[in-house]
Structures are given as structure tokens and as C-alpha cells.
Amino acid sequence: MVFSPCLRGNEEFSMSKIKIAVLVSGRGSNLQAIIDNIVKETLSAELAVVISDQADAYALERARKHNVPAVHVSTKGFKGRRDEYDALLVKELQKRNVDLVCLAGFMRIITPTLIKAFPNRILNIHPALLPAFPGLHVQKKAIEHGAKFSGCTVHFVDEGMDTGPIIIQAVVPILDKDTEDSLSERILKQEHKIYSRAIQLYAEEKLTIKGRRVFMSGNDDKADQFLINP
Ligand code: GRF
Asked: Atom 10 in ligand 1: which residue has the minimum CA distance?
């Protein structure tokens, strides 16, 4: 068997595994959950590369610890040239034959250059129940708005900001005593579960997009399994 430095689950089945890339900017707890699920073989994918726009992202450390190629693609010199930056990302991804790109705390707005290179092959995790609260600081916004529930969403990425077809959501109640930190922490726990689940469904080719809706074949996913009690 040819040795590859990429993180795989069960080597025997690696030939049929999809290759994923995770794009990050910071601490990488969602990346870690994906790595842990690959190691536990609850996620059948090969992590081909982790790419960060920040040299000091802790997520890069997490990747290196697991012998996953960790690549810093510097944004220096790309101010106002996001397309050209994304063209560099596409190059990195294509040279590793990546099937699916997973944004996990990647703090850049991606351009059509990347989206067109990976049509319906880019996922994102967002810490709110879309379409409510797109954008940044959304846990704080949900509390300030007086929402009683928030949660997290895994969706396909389209050209809008947090607008793509929704794959899975988990609901998290907002408690009277919640602060931005306490709510973020509870939501994050659910993010760690649903992101790998969505990737696994993609890997098993169980997702079909029809208009804005994403259908799961096999009918083995019940939305209410993601309704979380505090
Ligand atoms: C998560 O809350 C994710 O939903 C958002 O950015 C945060 C990244 O956290 N897009 P981490 O780097 O995965 O810990």
C-alpha cells in the first residue's frame, strides 16, 4: 500500500473515501471534531489538507499533530484581490484532488472563483439557525434579539453570505442566564456533532439539492434527533 501522509480512517477502505479539505482561520475545534471522527471511523473520509489564511492559527497545529498537511496561504499582497487569493486556494485544493471543501471558522468571504471550481462541493458551519442571524457575532445578536432558541447550521456554500441550502441544523435553547460565551459553548458542542454528520451524508452520496432544499435519501435522518435540551 502506498504511504500517504494524509489522515485516513480504516486504510483498507481508503480507496473509496472522499478527500476533504478543511479551511480555517483560528482555534480549529470543528477541525478537531472532524479529525476525531475520522480516527474513530465514524466519519469515512480522508483529510487531505488543512489550509489557513492565518500563519498562527492553532488549527494548523492540530493538523500537524495528526500528520495532516497544514498549509498557510498568506493573504499578504491580496488586499482587494480576493479572486486571485481564491485562485491560489483552488490550486492547493486541486493539486490534492480534493472532493469536498469544508469551511470551519474560515474568516474570509469566498469568491465565485472558489465556488465555481467546487460547485455544490463546499460546506460551511454557522453558529446560528439560518436564515436567522447570518454574519458575525451571531450568538450575541441572538441573545440581544431575545430569541428563545438558536443553534447551528451546516449548509452548502453559494455566492451569498450564509445563504446556501441547509443540510442539518441543531437547535439550542437560549436561557435567561446565558451570556455570549455560555451560549457559544453549548452551540459549539452541537457544531462538533452535526458537521461530521453532514460530511458523512455527503460522502455516502445521500444528499440531493432541489432548489433551496436538501433531501436525505434513505430516510434515516430525523430532524428531531438534533433538537437538544439544555
Ligand atoms: C464556529 O463557531 C463556527 O460555527 C464559526 O466559526 C467558529 C469556528 O470555531 N463559523 P473553531 O475554529 O472550529 O473552534
From this structure: 105
Whether the pLDDT of residue 202 is over 50: the answer is yes
The whole model's pTM is what? Answer: 0.92
Of 27, 30, 129, which is best to mutate to test ligand 1, by the most ligand atoms within 8 angstroms of its C-beta?
30
Bridge partners for 216 per DSSP: 207
What is the distance between the alpha carbons of residues 30 and 24, in angstroms, rounded to a whole number? Answer: 9
The DSSP-derived string for 200-211 is HHHHTT-EEEET
Per the model's pLDDT, the better-predicted residue between 32 and 223 turns out to be 32
- Residue 140 CA, distance from chain mean position: 21
Measure the CA–CA gap between 192 and 190, rounded to whole angstroms: 5
Helix axis angle, 180-203 relative to 29-40, nearest 10°? 40
Which cell goes with 145?
Answer: 434579539
